Each structure stands twice: as structure tokens, then as C-alpha cells.
Amino acid sequence: MDFPDLEAALKHFFGYDRFRPDQRQIIQESLDDADVLVIMPTGGGKSLCFQLPALLRPGLTIVVSPLIALMQDQVQALQDNGIGATFLNSTVGFVESRNREQAIMAGKIKLLYVAPERLLTERFLELLQEIKSQVGIGSIAIDEAHCVSQWGHDFRPEYRQLSSLRSYHPDIPMIALTATATERVREDIIQQLRLDQPKVHVSGFNRENLYYEVQPKDKSPYNQLLRIVNQQEGSGIIYCLSRKRVDEIAEKLNQDGFEVLPYHAGMSDVDRANNQTRFIRDDVQIIVATVAFGMGINKPDVRFVIHYDLPHSIENYYQESGRAGRDGEPAYCTLLFGTNDIRTVEFLIDQKPDEAEQRIAKQQLRQVINYAEGNECRRIIQLNYFGEKFPGNCGTCDNCCYPKPLEDWTIEAQKFLSCVARCQEKFGAGHIIDILRGSQSDKIKKYGHDRLSTYGIGQDRTTQEWRNLGRSLLHQGLLDITTDGYAILKLNPLSWEVMRKQITVQIAVNPSTVKQKTSSKTNRQAIQEVTNVNSVDAEMLFQKLRKLRKKLADAQAVPPYVIFGDSTLRKIAIEQPRTLEEFGKISGVGEYKLSHYGNQFIEEIKNHRLDNLDN
Ligand code: ADP
Ligand code: ZN
Predict the structure, then answer these.
(1) For the chain, how many helices (H) and strands (E)?
(2) CB contact at 8 A, 376 and 499
(3) Nearest-CA neighbor of 214 among 441, 424, 108, 372?
């Protein structure tokens, strides 16, 4: 098939009108047979980067993917676009494998998904040679490529073997894809896979469609959770720290009338897999889980993620909350922050046998607390963690929507920073604050810090207030901190400018009398203003279309999003097309889906109109 341009091919196969940032260039480079490394956040649209080239170039594209569930999902979604795709893994029996191999040799398959451990078996290497001579291999795509790296959070030994792939097939271009943010892992991927002068694409890590908020846990956290969940629509994940808590919360929510299932490592594999499938297929609305849940689930329409307990690190929080809104539609991420939980986590950390490990875990905990207690735009703190500068004012986090009042704290900042200087930049924030507040602790006496000129000059402020200042100085780049686990405060040139009165310091303060505003309803309004969500009528139709989608999906035993994603469904509800031609113009409706589902959706829209006339 010939297309005038890549956009036309995109519309034909996937129904989308335009490429997301970077996609076009990646696809072009891949078609030019370059090696490519793609680093894009979750939901960025990585799959398309190897799927579209696979359809446009001769031969078969091999896709290496770590998880069977993920493979099945992607293949299903491709097949539902009328695309020749299949997978070979341990779940496929001998006869069926044979059938699939024949389909490949007959040129009916454009994308073949395989597990890494299978790819390098003797049997499979022979098969590849055969494929090569009969239909050709256009490219090899390595999905979740961070699994090759020991430095990543999800190292898989099977992935290591992929390093020999290049020796077997030096001529086949490779594309590796991951959402990993760290530099070290990226370099490791290039080395391990022996990518040849790869074109590297790193997209920003800001997830624009997510609303971030932190709510202080109140006295009855379950009721608080209930209030939040009541304001949400669509699928959601609730993360808890322990299995016991997962079971408890799931049970309670069930009693309160929600469709909920639990997920944790204490359950049997079968139960876990079942619960996951039922969640993905929208049989239940909510899954309550330990962090064991989520890696490798591909559900793009998760509308909210609530952390009932503290995450382990900012990176964990980013990845876990990031399972919301992969489809680019608005989604909500709420962290419930309880000071008692800090002690629980500290206790767990103390159980770790290794001291270095303890130290790192403690520093990570401190960063999470800083995030939770911070008054700046949540995105500044998150993205800063990945080394990305974000200007703030995102408009879709609690601190930006309900900013706390700014106050001039220049004098306090000078006191704080000069105390850091007087301690020779050898201590952390806790000790500095103790000095400022004139504490009589042993540590202070031991170092003779009660004789410093800054000793006791900050008694007019509470420890909390000083902590807030310290955090703010760090976030504003007016002070530095070591990342070796000891969190030692270090001065930088800006710190000296503050001390020399060359710059003033404004910080957001938490007025203790004003209760923090945390109603998610207004949050919802805030994000809806940004994304321009539609009228009551469209919302009603949207719900009807969801039901139709679920019915069609159940009939084929696939997840509803495979039929149409939420964003496409929403566009259909707003535009309410009357003809197949109009229907086909909607973004997300490709040729195949138009012919398969168009009429049924148009019928549903017509009925909706008639219902409205009756009323
Ligand atoms: P990732 O693997 O990077 O997490 P996916 O490849 O699963 O992301 O894509 C996330 C969602 O975005 C999917 O629902 C996909 O269909 C959608 N998507 C990808 N590219 C586009 C595009 N150009 N226009 C609209 N939607 C897109
Ligand atoms: Zn913000």
C-alpha cells in the first residue's frame, strides 16, 4: 500500500490525525534503517514508533517484550486494527505455534512479539534464518529496554542475552524503547544491545494530563479515601503498603458499594491474574494493590491513582502515579500523607540488614516527605528529581491551583544559610535547625555548636517552619544537598548572594489557621477548565457509548479500550457523527474500526438523539 505521507498512513492504520512530539522523526529514522533509542514517559506513545514502520517496510518486524500479558494486549490491539500481528511464547501450544509460523512465512504477519528467552533458543534462531530468507526481517524492536540494565529498577537476566542478538543479525536495524529516566541506564542499554551510532530521543517527563495533589491524612483516613473515590469516575488504582491493608481497604470499599478487587503477592498466581484481567476489562472499577501491581499492565484509561500510604521514593511515586492517564486524558493522582506513616516506613527501613541500603532508603523517604510537605508546584519537585528544570505554575497541581501565600523570609534565610556556613557545610537540615532553635542536644554540645553565633537565633520560628524554609531554599536552588544518603547541606553561589543581601527570598507558607483546601471537586473543575470537557448531553452519551463499547469488547473477550480509547469515545460523544464518513474523520477511528464498529456507534448516537426528543 502506498501513502502520500506518514500522516496518511497513521490515519489509515491507527485512525489518529497527527503524531505526538518526536514520533514522526523516530519513525522516519527507523524507516531509514538507523538504530534508534527512544526514551519517552509512560503514555508518550512508544508503541507506535515501531508499529507504524513495521507496516510500512517490507518483511517482518520482531518485537521483544518482557511480559506475556503485555504482549497479548498489544497483539490484540493491533489485530483489532486489522493488522497482521501475533506472538510466540510459552502459552502457545505446538500446533498453534506451527500455524503462526506458517502465517509468517506466507507474509500475513507484519509484527511478531516474542519473549527474550525464546528469541535466542536454537530452534528460534533457525526459524529466524528461515524467515529472513523467505520474507525478510525489517527490524528488531526491544520494548522495555531498561530490563537489560542492572542499574534499572526492573533488571531481567533473560534480557542480558539480547547482547548477542547483534552478532547473529548485524544487518538488521534495532529500535530500543523505555520510560526509564536515568542516564546510567540509557548508556547501559546502548552498550548492552550494541546499538550502532543510535539516534537518541529523550522526551520530557512532564505528564501534562495528570493532576497531582497531596492531602494530609485526617483522623479517619478510610472516610477520607471514600470521599475522594466518590468524586472520581472511571477506573482507579489504590496503592497500600501492606497486604493486610490491601485486603482491609478492598473489603471496606466493597461493603460501601464499590466494585473492587484486591491484588498482592500473598494471593495465588491464578487469583492475581484473574483480578488483573477483570480490572483491565472494566468488570470492576477499582483495584486495591500493593506496588507489586502495575508493572506491565497496559490499561490506558486508568482515571485515578491514590496512594493510601507513602511511596518509597519520588521515582516510585512518579512511575506508580504515572499509571494513570496513559491515554492522555485527564487523570488524578492523590497522595495521602500521614505523619504516622513516616514512622512505619522508618521502622521498615531499620529492619534492612545493610547500612548503606538503609541510608539510601532514608534519603529517599526524606525526599518523599519534602515532596508531600512542599508548597511549590509539585512538578518542579518531581521533574527536578530527573534532572529536568520545570518553570512551575503548571496549573494542574494543588499547590498551583491553591497557592499558599508568599512571605518574605529573607532574614530567616540569611540566618539559616549562615548557620550552614558556620558548621563548615558538614551537617544536615535537622542539626542546623536544632542550632537555630537553641537545642541542648548531645550532638550540639559534642561539636560545641552552642558557642556558634547562630545558636538560638531562630527560636521565634517552629521546627516545622524552619523545615519549610529549608525545603524551599533547596527547591529554589538557593542551597544544595548531597545525594550520597547523608543529605548534607552545601552552599552555592546563590546562597552567598542571599547572605550578602543581593537577593530576597520569598517562600510559600502554610498558614496554620487556614485549613488546607483539598476538595477534589474543585480540582476536577480546575483540570476540566484546562482540558475543556463538554456538556451534560455529551456526558450522557459518553456513558451510553461506554456501555456499547463494553458489550462489543465482552463479545470478543478483549478489554474495552481495544475497541476505542476514552479520548476517541469522548470525541464521538461531542461530535455525534451521523454518517460513516463523519465517523471516520474522528481521531482514533481507522479504516478497520470504521468498517467494524461504525454502524453500531452511529445507531447508538441516533437513539440518544431520539431519546432527547422524547424528553
Ligand atoms: P507508552 O508505551 O509510551 O506508554 P503507548 O504506546 O501505550 O504508550 O501509547 C499510549 C496511548 O497513546 C495509547 O492509547 C495510544 O493509542 C495513544 N497514542 C499513541 N500515539 C498517538 C497519536 N499520535 N495520537 C493519538 N493517540 C496516540
Ligand atoms: Zn503545579
Answers:
(1) 29, 17
(2) no
(3) 372
Q: Which residue's CA is the nearest one to ligand 1's atom 27?
A: 45
Question: Which amino acid is it at 324?
Answer: A
Q: What pLDDT, in 10s, does the model give residues 357-368?
A: 888 888 888 889
Q: What share of the chain is helix, strand, coil (3-state, %, to 5)?
A: 50, 10, 40
Condensed to tens digits (0 to 9), the pLDDT of residues 189-229 reads 999 999 999 999 998 889 999 999 999 898 899 999 999 99
Q: How far is the CA of 210 from the centre of ligand 2 (A)?
A: 10
Query: How far is Cα 11 from Cα 196, in angstroms, rounded to an integer?
Result: 31
Q: How far is the CA of 225 from the centre of ligand 2 (A)?
A: 23
How does pLDDT run across 17-65, given as a tens digit for each residue?
Answer: 999 889 999 999 999 999 999 999 888 899 999 999 999 999 999 999 8
Rg (CA), the chain: 27
Q: What is the mean pLDDT of the chain?
A: 89
20 Cα to the center of ligand 1, angstroms = 8
Residue type, 476: Q
Could you write out the three-class secondary structure of 49-64? HHHHHHHHCCCEEEEE
In the chain, pLDDT over 70 holds for what percent of residues? 94
Please state the atom number of ligand 1 nearest to the C-alpha of residue 143: 2
Specify the pLDDT at position 375: 85
State whether the beta carbon of 437 lies less than 6 angstroms from ligand 1: no
pLDDT tens digit sequence for 406-424:
889 999 999 999 999 999 9
Instruction: Give the CA distances from residue 10 to residues 23, 82, 291, in Å, rounded to whole numbers and listed in that order.
Output: 11, 13, 35
Q: Hey, what's the torsion of the CAs at 361, 237, 559, 568, to 10 degrees?
A: -100
Query: Is the pLDDT assigned to residue 514 strictly greater than 50?
Result: no
Dist. CA 393 → ligand 2 center (Å): 5
Residues 37, 189 contacting (CB under 8 angstroms): yes
Query: What atom of ligand 1 comes closest to residue 300's alpha carbon?
Result: 14
Judge if the beta carbon of residue 24 lies within 6 A of ligand 1.
no
Helix axes 314-321, 378-385, angle to 10 degrees: 110
Residues 443/445/448/449 CA torsion (nearest 10 deg): 60
Alpha-carbon span 509 to 405, nearest angstrom: 6
